[in-house]
Amino acid sequence: MCLACRGSKLLCGLSYCPIIVRAMISIRAKSIPRTKHIYGSSPPSVFVGRYGYPKVFAGPSAPPQVGDTRIYDMPESWVNRSLEEIFSYRFSLITGRRKVDVRDPNDKLVMTLQEIAMASRPADVELVLKKAPSPRITFDGHLPPQGPIAPLEDIVLGGNVHVNPHVEKAYYDTDLKASNAVLMLYSRGVPVTSIQKILSVGGLGLKRLRRLVPTRWSITAVDDMISKELIRRIRSLPMISEYLVFVRRYLKNLFIAILAPRPWSFEWMEGWFPQTTWNPSGLRPEIMGDYEGFRGRRTYPEIGGCYYASRLAVAEYLTRIGRQATAVLIREIYPGFYFPIGVWFVRENIRELFKSSPLRFDEIREAMDYLSGITRIDFGGWIKASVLLRRLMEEQDLLRWCHG
């Protein structure tokens, strides 16, 4: 149940997620300033909540320091850092928030959030809070850990905000659809996480349709929009000529990618061991996954935002090498990985995975034999849980039979 829910659907019937609450209680910020005035440089960082939609909590985040704070909210730069470093960055960000109507573009806070989100450099801000921030960090399965939060009284920008010209063009082009704006910014080299922030604060799309988008929704939406466009192009590319296997180990996680010389299809699977985030008291590893065929899928995958984050990373790699393939991705999560830290973790690790040199095989069974010595879960369990691995094996057996 926890693996299917991941703290967002509350399938256990409670009004809160016990796993996330446990994580929140176990980590406390040590040196949060007990003041109602915070002056610092936002990385930039903004937050839009989802509860109570269309009236949600929203606000900026900043550490109580001025300077180059980009690393505090730049997941693209976290991939080879320790959890302690990442928590330290997130602990330092203080979020001031108040309720806003997602449909009100003239709200002063909304307009300020748009300025901050579009900034290409840290933006100096002064947060006037109604009370001192509480010393704790919040965890979420979709978002990076969030630092101390306090009700926001007022916000003042400390100077001119530097904006990327491509971002500025997309913001002022109110006849440009949000999906086209996202793709344009991506093609111009704007980081995915920056695009997610701009979409979240209602900075993209047709004028009459612009809305604040809850941060967790904007993350998945951008991953989905970009990967769909890349996959549209990939479908017309020639196929790879052999089986490619990539392996990466990082922070009690094992990531595996199997690329097969077949038309585009995609599968993402996760195996959570006992004493991990979404299998805290289980007796055995639990596997869950989703897949799509050549034409994609129309329903939201049960496995959630990690599906789209990993699909984007695969599509980027295939676009880079100019080839088409069937992609099966596997993730094993080992005991001790307790904290939900966001789908960025998957996206950036799969991107890093594809920077390594692959192992090459002529047949799928050779690749599986190799991986059976890599995974801690018996590889037969992965085959049983997978749709595409079984399909690849059946196709290979059929080809052998046809060739006598």
Provide tags for this entry.
six-stranded mixed beta sheet; 3 domains; 404 residues; globular; alpha+beta; 12 strands
Kindly describe this structure.
With 404 residues, the chain is an alpha+beta fold. The chain has helices spanning 2-5, 18-26, 83-92, 108-118, 165-172, 178-187, 192-200, 215-234, 305-321, 344-353, 364-371, 379-385, 388-402, and strands spanning 37-42, 46-48, 55-62, 94-101, 123-129, 149-157, 243-250, 253-260, 265-272, 286-292, 326-333, 359-361. The strands form two sheets. Strands 1-5-6-4-3-2 form a six-stranded mixed sheet, covered by helices on one side. A six-stranded mixed sheet has the order 10-9-11-8-7-12, with helices on both faces. A hairpin with a 6-residue loop joins strand 2 and strand 3 (55-62). It is globular and about 70 Å long. The N and C termini lie far apart (47 Å).
DSSP E strands, number: 12
Helix content: 25-40%
Which assembly state applies to the chains in this document? single chain
The overall pLDDT average reads 91
Order of helices and strands: HHEEEHEHEEHHHHEEEEHEHEHHH
What sort of overall outline do the alpha carbons produce when their principal axes are compared?
globular
The separation of the N and C termini measures 47 Å
Note the total helix count.
13
Look at the helices and sheets and give the structural class. Answer: alpha+beta
What are the SSEs and their pairings?
Layout (H helix, E strand, L loop, with lengths): L1 H4 L12 H9 L10 E6 L3 E3 L6 E8 L20 H10 L1 E8 L6 H11 L4 E7 L19 E9 L7 H8 L5 H10 L4 H9 L14 H20 L8 E8 L2 E8 L4 E8 L13 E7 L12 H17 L4 E8 L10 H10 L5 E3 L2 H8 L7 H7 L2 H15 L2
Parallel strand pairs: 4-6, 9-11
Antiparallel strand pairs: 1-5, 2-3, 3-4, 5-6, 7-8, 7-12, 8-11, 9-10
